[in-house]
Amino acid sequence: MATKPSISTGLPVSFADIEAAAKAIEGSVIRTPCMHAQTLSEITGAEVWLKFENLQFTAAFKERGALNKLLTLTEEERRKGVIAASAGNHSQGLSYHAARLGVPVTIVMPKFTPVVKVKQTEGHGANVVLFGESFDDAFAHARELERERDLTFVHPFDDEKVIAGQGTCGLEMMQDVPDLDMMVVPIGGGGLMSGCAIAAKHIKPDIEMIGVQAALYPSMYGRLRGETVVCDGDSLAEGISVKQPGEKTFAIIDALVDDVVLVAERELEQAVSLLLGIEKTVVEGAGAAGLAALLSHPERFRGRKVGLPLCGGNIDTRLLASVLLRDLARSGRLARLRIRLRDRPGQLHKVVKLFDEHQVNILEVYHQRVFTNLPAKGLITDIECETRDADHLERLVEGLRDAGYEVKLVEPD
């Protein structure tokens, strides 16, 4: 994509709007730290600075835009209340600040939204309405209720006040690290990137603004290029799994953003794991998308001073555990070996001795005789084990094969 102009003239949100939002929300939203990540810098070859938006009270940047919108309501609008459609961070950020300000809030979610998300939103004082099979169904119903009950609809991204609020994240990054070369920002509907681009380009016109989308949901990527794209699948980055970007956000991103890159699920998983293992911070898939971009496209960012907003930390604990285990498996620190044995006494004992000789810790043993396509006297043993690294695992496999065993590494997808 060609270099974009640095002035936001004629766009729906101005730098002055973001400055006003910053003043309005000051003291009610956490000014999160922006810190240098030394080890991640060494891994990626870039100078990495992380903005910890996962430390907000509801663990996501969405509070910024939601609060700024709420603060612009008239007294009558506050009394009647607000409504939104969301099964994620927007619902919690809006509900939390609406309750704090005494504004009634209704959130419409699809019927099959996980119970934990419903309970979290209700815990912030919202009236949750479950409707429809999909987010589109819930969104349409929310607009109907808006008209029927004369409520104010708070869009998760395509709203000038919301965009200005999200832009305070980029404003703070530029204030804390004014010599950034690049800012790499996740894009779903585009609210965060729109606001950040306006703030950053105003302060430093030559800064590069790079958007990131999950490869399964390249909606903004495709629209910027005039391409028809398919948006479907279960992405780890559910917070940016948006099929249709906003009109206002598209106008801003088309004018100010220099490029949008795509990241695969594997890099998203690796980024979540690295942030927990190295930075000791829990980040959801969307929040890790910026780091995933650096891992996926190292040549694009090497040697540059890059700011990454960790935009959210709401990830299901079981999903996080799965991501961490899969990453351990890919790095060779956790493995499942499928070993074919002869039906002789002491065979399993001999195999276990080889694990001991190589100082490999056995976690689980699955000894299979019945459910196999081997002859009746054939058997398979699956052994899950823990090694120091990929080289350690390779030495174990070589030792088993040298001892005459047929060994297959069962790899994760």
The percentage of residues in β strands lies in 15-25%
**Second rung of CATH, namely the architecture of the largest domain:** 3-Layer(aba) Sandwich
Shape: elongated
Radius of gyration, CA atoms, in whole angstroms? 25 Å
* Helix proportion range: 40-55%
Number of strands: 14
Unreliable stretches covering 5 or more consecutive residues = 2-6
Order of strands across the biggest sheet? 1-2-10-7-8-9
CATH level 1 class label of the largest domain: Alpha Beta
Stated plainly, the CATH topology of the largest domain is called: Rossmann fold
Structural class: alpha/beta
Number of continuous helical runs: 17
Q: Major beta sheet, specifics? A: 6 strands, mixed
- End-to-end gap: 33 Å
Number of domains: 3
Output mean pLDDT. 93
Quaternary organisation of the protein chains: single chain
What layout of secondary structure does this protein have?
Blueprint: H1 15-25, E1 34-36, H2 38-44, E2 47-51, H3 62-71, H4 75-80, E3 82-85, H5 89-101, E4 105-109, H6 115-123, E5 127-130, H7 135-149, E6 152-153, H8 160-176, E7 182-186, H9 191-203, E8 208-214, H10 219-225, H11 247-256, E9 259-263, H12 265-279, H13 289-296, H14 298-301, E10 305-309, H15 317-330, E11 334-342, H16 347-357, E12 361-368, E13 378-386, H17 390-402, E14 406-410
General description of the model:
The protein is an alpha/beta fold and about 425 residues long. It folds into 3 domains: about 200 residues, 3-Layer(aba) Sandwich (Rossmann fold); about 70 residues, 3-Layer(aba) Sandwich (Rossmann fold); about 80 residues, Alpha-Beta Plaits. It is about 45% helix and about 20% strand. Helix 5 links the parallel strand 3 and strand 4. The two termini are about 35 Å apart. The N terminus is likely disordered.
